[in-house]
Design brief:
The chain is about 30% helix and about 15% strand. By secondary structure, it is an alpha/beta fold. The protein folds into 2 domains: about 70 residues; about 90 residues, Arc Repressor Mutant, subunit A (Orthogonal Bundle). The strands form 2 sheets. It has a 4-stranded mixed sheet, with helices on both faces. α4 crosses α5.
């Protein structure tokens, strides 16, 4: 049974235009700080602005200095900037414990490397849970902050992405211009340059 955590805190949204269309950041004040509840990417047939209007009609258009700075960093990332995001800005507590573990593992994959759903599952202690890892990433509330475009299928095909497969391909090409020569990140200990997931 999937754990669903309901948060009734009033939410706000901030839109930022990018080369991939608008990106929406849904946020609220949590424990005295501006925290991200969701990041919505535009995808073919549905812009992030339309998604906010449809899925979160009660959210209020507003921003703060922290949210504006984050929105600027997301826009810079989408133009090819080597930007790293802290998970401290995200409301991970709204995700199930399993999804939190998946998102932390994915967050540890550095620019220029990719992993597979199965390798992430193995890193989490159950190599048979690759499909569950894929589902957790398909429902990643924080795309870009958690770079889920860096997880691909074991056969080398790209798999899905919230912004569409062409956006995923473009982001991978920005991470490394030689997409076909991307090094697979081995999740775990070793000298592959993988940063340790945040606690």
């Amino acid at each position: 049974m999937r754990l669903v955590i309901i948060d009734t805190t009033p939410s706000f949204h901030c839109l930022r235009e990018t080369r991939f269309g608008p990106v929406a950041i849904l946020w609220s004040v949590h424990q005295g700080r501006s925290k991200i509840r969701r990041v919505l990417l535009s995808r073919p047939g549905l812009s992030a602005k339309q998604a906010v209007e449809s899925l979160f009609p009660d959210s209020i258009a507003s921003s703060s200095a922290e949210i504006d700075a984050l929105a600027d960093r997301i826009a810079a990332f989408l133009t090819g900037g080597d930007i790293r995001f802290s998970l401290a800005v995200a409301r991970l507590d709204l995700c199930s414990p399993f999804q939190q573990r998946v998102l932390r593992a994915e967050h540890g994959i550095p620019r220029g490397k990719v992993s597979t759903y199965q390798r992430i599952a193995g890193h989490l202690g159950n190599a048979q849970s690759a499909r569950a890892v894929g589902t957790a990433l398909a429902h990643n509330p924080f795309p870009i902050i958690v770079p889920c475009h860096r997880a691909i299928r074991s056969d080398g095909t790209l798999g899905g992405f919230q912004g569409g497969v062409e956006m995923k391909r473009a982001l991978l090409e920005r991470d490394s211009p030689k997409i076909k020569q991307l090094t697979f990140a081995i999740l775990g200990r070793g000298s592959d340059g993988l940063r340790s997931p945040e606690p």
